[in-house]
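User: Second chain of the day. Same drill as before.
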Amino acid sequence: MRTIALLLFMVCSHGMLASEDSLSANNSSALYLGPWKLAKNKTITVAPHFGFVMPHNPQMKHLIKGHSFGVHTTYLVQMMGDKPWHQHYNYPEMGYDVFFSNTGNLPQLGYQVGASYLMNLSLLRLKKHVNSFDGFNNWLGLGIGLGYSTKTWDLEENHQADVIGSNFNACLTLQYSVRFLTIGKYDLRTGIRLTHFSNGAFQLPNQGTNNLGWFIALSHKQFHNTLLKGTIEEFSKTWNTSNSLVIGFKEISPPMGKKYPSVTFQTLQERHFTYKSSLGLGLDLMYNSSLKTLLERYSEESSSSKDVFQIGGVLSYAMHFDRFKLIMQQGFYLKSKWKSDGSLYHRVGLRYAVNDRLGLQLALKTHFAKADHGEIGLIYQWK
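Assistant: Same format as last time:
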């Protein structure tokens, strides 16, 4: 958990340092909003929301007893264009988001609180309207952070709520928002938001919750008259090879059991074909220590140590944000004695380039909607 918090801190620090550089280069005056002093490219939004916890598994239907409602508050910084990736992504907004909601079932699911780093990617071609976008705009928001759930599964007192096994969880946010009205110094935004809580099977049960809601937000108006629209640097397509070594821990049924380590070594060949995107092919060598227990449990035969090894082929896609990459990988088991998870697996996560050679990775391996385990580790890149 401390290592995950450290990587999240690096995400936040890198983004906000970029924002402060942009601010100092482009803004010398500030606006006042109540007790806060806000620069021209910053805003605070307050957004009440109303929705429900989605029963993504039939076993959860008995837990949905009412609508969820709450509020999220976001501090956003408009990227000003002083870095090339700002312009490639149409001047995104980046900042901090704090989320609070009930679940519509307080006795069994309780309250949920989350703190995330949020990026709003503009879906409007702002490069064509760089001096005037005070009107309509819309964004796709992506957030990652830490969440806390006040209620968890308990064998004695809450045994029917087999959804979340730990108080602390990863908090993932996906939202679509629209600015539809500007009144004086304020903007009105609305949209839909999905907030996911899960611990990545570190502690069972771990079906996770998906809180889906509609929100309306009031924010102080940003002023964009100093956006930079420079010449975007030329991009040359390159091939890159990287090796990564990651480790994770997971539980298997029954809950409250042993934590089994899992280690994956990956070699990946990528083609960086646009400034924002790359495609790749890779090979995973996986050591999953829980497989020995599972194979012996269900086959009633002893298993050898080689049965815990798996080999997988990988198709990879990545989106580049300066030093960060959002990775999405589709894996195929080429060799695995354990067949119950199927032949496919998936990986989604973040990579951070410490320098031209070394990097860090935080990811989640899944089998469709079922989390297998979280991963954290090191990357070495060959160019």
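The longest helix spans residues 2-26.

User: Great, on to the next one.
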